[in-house]
TrEMBL record, chain A:
Matches recorded under PANTHER family: ACETATE COA-TRANSFERASE SUBUNIT ALPHA, KETOACID-COENZYME A TRANSFERASE
Leader sequence segment: none
Native source species: Pararhodobacter marinus
Lineage: Bacteria, Pseudomonadati, Pseudomonadota, Alphaproteobacteria, Rhodobacterales
UniProtKB keywords: Transferase
Name used for this protein in its record: Succinyl-CoA--3-ketoacid-CoA transferase
From TrEMBL, chain B:
Family recorded in the similarity comment: Belongs to the 3-oxoacid CoA-transferase subunit B family.
MF term (GO), any: CoA-transferase activity
NCBIfam families found in the cross-reference section: pcaJ_scoB_fam
Domain of life: Bacteria
A Pfam family hit: CoA_trans
PANTHER family referenced in this protein's UniProt entry, alphabetically: KETOACID-COENZYME A TRANSFERASE, SUCCINYL-COA:3-KETOACID COENZYME A TRANSFERASE SUBUNIT B-RELATED
UniProt protein name: Succinyl-CoA--3-ketoacid-CoA transferase
SMART domains: CoA_trans (SM00882)
Keywords on record: Transferase
InterPro entries named among the record's database cross-references: 3-oxoacid_CoA-transf_B, CoA_trans_fam_I, NagB/RpiA_transferase-like
Species in which this protein is naturally found: Pararhodobacter marinus
Length: 236, 208
């Protein structure tokens, strides 16, 4: 079982087609699959529906696929960091389905677990609930949300072993594990592929059963909002 | 006279009790962390972290370590990381004691609007809808009026809602109000603000 591929383009080979649906990991620019996004741009694939919490920023991350007009529809919770996104959306070129952040994560998790729908209180009484089934449990009203079954998952992890067991780093984990599980095929890009046996089996964040293809590469890891405190307050 | 941003944050910090797990929103709520003092408060960041530390020193930023506002932060000895589904499981599961959030409008029945202005501002709700639906106590911190001087504390919200009947307490530059049966109850006025001034700036029904 060979899961390791030489490049993002090779890892995408045979998997991309116009109109496909993709789940992408990452939060803002943290833990995004930079290399696979670049390879999708290169592939020229069109009319993509992408489920991702955000849509990058102008010219970076998923913003690159906006610039080339390869995205037909986004399923996201927050898109406020991207002027080109706003322009395409307000002009009607881009479809947008807002999902509350927890609903989006749970829709991915549910699909990965074979669960086609679940009830949640999130969004009851708001625009999000319009047209959705409402059901009461123990005197509280919930709405039905559906699992998000996607054609492809693209995620970023810190390390993978040759089996695809993954370890993430700090808050770069975010949407990556649920996004990894909800696609028919999952490609992961990592900073380092290590030999089997080098990762502690008790410390695996996502088991390799969810991972079909692995690539290793250099990541820019751009910071969206560098925020620091002055050294003078170091005393506390 | 009224409270400034930091005084509002300091007032909001009084709402927090020892041992609480708390989620702070973007803007003034983020400043609340500066005023918790010696209280043992664990901050949750919904992008997947419990035990959020202060901003890093210059040169020590880590691109893999940010808060839900996408700012660089640090970890503490108690920190735990997890994925987004797990993060919202603890929010929906009622494990977070309090959320302190900003708002565009709040209504006297506890309705909250803080995620979009149709045709103008389309940023998204992020985790706000999940937080207000799942967290035990929701505290709103915001300016009492908008830049045109109009009340943001209303009889009914005009903007698309984030949640219905979810707000417990409102802290503004003019004072503190609780959502109670029949309307809002004044808890206190800000320094230098009279009750009459607070009432005049409030469109919502105030009950005694």
């Amino acid at each position: 079982m060979q899961k390791i591929y030489g490049s993002a383009a090779e890892a995408l080979d045979g998997l991309v087609f116009d109109g496909m649906t993709i789940a992408a990991g990452g939060f803002g620019l943290c833990g995004i699959p930079e290399l696979l996004i670049d390879a999708l741009v290169e592939s020229g694939v069109k009319d993509l529906t992408i489920a991702s919490n955000n849509c990058g920023v102008d010219g970076f991350g998923l913003g690159k696929l906006l610039d080339t007009k390869q995205i037909k529809k986004m399923i996201s919770s927050y898109v406020g960091e991207n002027a080109e996104f706003m322009r395409q959306y307000l002009s009607g070129e881009l479809e947008l389905e807002f999902n509350p952040q927890g609903t989006l994560a749970e829709r991915m998790r549910a699909a990965g677990a074979g669960i086609p729908g679940f009830y949640t209180k999130t969004g009851v009484g708001t625009q999000i609930a319009e047209g959705k089934e409402h059901k009461d449990f123990n005197g509280e009203t919930y709405i039905l949300e559906t699992g998000l079954f996607m054609d492809l998952s693209i995620v970023k992890a810190w390390k993978a072993d040759e089996t695809g067991n993954l370890v993430f780093r700090k808050t770069a984990r975010n949407f990556n594990p649920p996004a990894a599980t909800c696609g028919k095929v999952c490609i992961v890009e990592v900073e380092e592929i290590v030999p089997n046996g080098s990762l502690d089996p008790d410390h695996i964040h996502l088991p390799g059963i969810y991972v079909n293809r692995i690539i290793q590469g250099e990541h820019e890891k751009r910071i969206e909002k560098v925020t620091t405190r002055p050294r003078e307050t170091a005393a506390e | 006279m009224a409270w400034d941003r930091n005084q509002m944050a300091a007032r909001a910090a009084l709402e927090l009790e020892d041992g609480m797990y708390v989620n702070l929103g973007i803007g003034i709520p983020t400043l609340v962390a500066n005023y918790v003092g010696d209280k043992d408060i664990t901050l949750q960041s919904e992008n997947g972290m419990l035990g959020m530390g202060p901003f890093p020193y210059e040169g020590e930023e880590d691109p893999d370590l940010i808060n839900a506002g996408k700012q660089t932060i640090t970890e503490l000895p108690r920190t735990a990381y997890f994925d987004s589904a797990t993060s919202f499981a603890m929010i929906r599961g009622g494990k977070i004691a309090a959320a302190i959030l900003g708002a565009m409008e709040v209504a006297e029945n506890g309705d909250l609007a803080n995620w979009m202005i149709p045709g103008k501002l389309v940023k998204g709700m992020g985790g706000a809808m999940d937080l207000v639906a799942g967290v035990k106590r929701v505290i709103v911190v915001m300016d009492h009026t908008n830049k045109h001087g109009e009340s943001k504390v209303l009889k009914a919200c005009t903007l698309p809602l984030t949640g219905t009947g979810v707000v417990d307490r409102i802290i503004t530059n003019l004072g503190v109000l609780d959502v109670v049966e029949g309307g809002l109850k004044i808890v206190e006025c800000a320094e230098g603000v009279t009750e009459d001034e607070l009432r005049a700036a409030t469109e919502a029904t105030i009950v005694n």
